[in-house]
Amino acid sequence: MHTDFVIAAATLRAQNFGLAVPATVTAEDVCQVVSKMKIAEFKPKEGVKMAVAEGDPDHGGGGGGGSDESIGQLRACLPSPEKVKGIELVPLDFDKDNDMHIEYVTACSNLRATNYKISPADKHNTKLIAGKIMPAIATTTSLVAGLVCLELYKLVQGKPLSQYKNGFANLALPFFGFSEPIQAPSREYRGEKWNLWSRIDITDSNITLQDFLKLFQDKHKMELTMVSCGVSILYSMFSSKSKEKMQEKMVDIIKGAGIEIAPRQKYVRFEVCANDEEGEEVEPPTVRFSVK
Predict the structure, then answer these.
(1) What's the CA gap between 6 and 26, in Å, rounded?
(2) Which residues face 290 on adjacent strands?
(3) 3-state SS class at 250
(4) I need a labelling partner for 163 at 20 to 30 A (CA). Which of 6, 17, 47, 276 fits?
(5) Is residue 244 in a domain?
């Protein structure tokens, strides 16, 4: 599936630049080239700070995407006019009767389907579906794509939240409406703030249930009353069975609850209920637990 995407994408890209495309490119050809490539290991940038509250520096800045420095870095990546002299880009209009176009769409849709556990489709079904949705792309879908791109420009430029817009459109009426988005509501506990997008990361996959509970009590001053994963309850302070599992590893408890972990899955998400030091209920953020 990956090699199908590489072949189709590379072929269409070559056509964009007017390059000669070999008559046949096989998966073996792609694997032979890839085997000689050395991909550097991803390392996150150090010293990067994200604004989490309205009063923080660079609030709504999107990581400084619109700063002079970042714009200068983008400009430095552009090739000089001499290097692109004589190159003429050729636009490619989608054609459902073009086999390479269908192969590219099939590869993209199947890769996405794999990520979301959706049944993949073969080239014939993809061609049938594409033929039906093409008329829709020219109307409402193109309008939505345009509105999304406008918001992406603001994100790149680091605009404040007040300049973003939610769009509502109905071409049949026609109706166009826009509203300002609101900041995600946040909670505060012992000086820590979190919202819907926050999480607590637990990276020790060998931690026991007892140490897991102690970690929250020592670091966050919270007493966990319940830990669940999906529809399965992994711990409840009112359950005698939970007390018997104190020395078990969290990974074993997850598997024992019948929760399936995919071969390449790195994390599972816990929903936890907790009390503060006074016994009052607290709503902590989601917990992301490493299973590898």
Answers:
(1) 10
(2) 267
(3) helix
(4) 47
(5) yes
Closest CA to 268 of 282, 284, 255: 255
Number of domains in the chain: 2
Q: Is 256 helix (H, G, I), strand (E, B) or coil?
A: helix
Query: CATH code at 229?
Result: 3.10.290.60
Q: Write the DSSP assignment of 157-204 as a string of letters.
A: HT--GGG--EEEEETTTTEEEEE---PPP-EEETTEEE-TT-EEEE--
7 and 99 fall within a common domain: yes
Cα 238 to Cα 227, 228, 233, 243, 284, distances in angstroms: 12, 14, 12, 9, 19
pLDDT digits (tens, 9 = 90+) for 26-84: 889 999 999 999 988 888 888 777 666 666 665 444 444 556 788 888 888 998 888 88
Q: Is residue 153 part of a domain?
A: no
Query: What helix, strand, coil percent values describe the chain, rounded to 5?
Result: 40, 15, 45
pLDDT in tens, 86-137: 888 899 988 888 999 999 999 999 999 999 989 999 999 999 888 777 666 6
Cβ neighbour number for residue 156 with a 10 Å cutoff:
14
Structural domain range at position 251? 187-290
229, part of any domain: yes
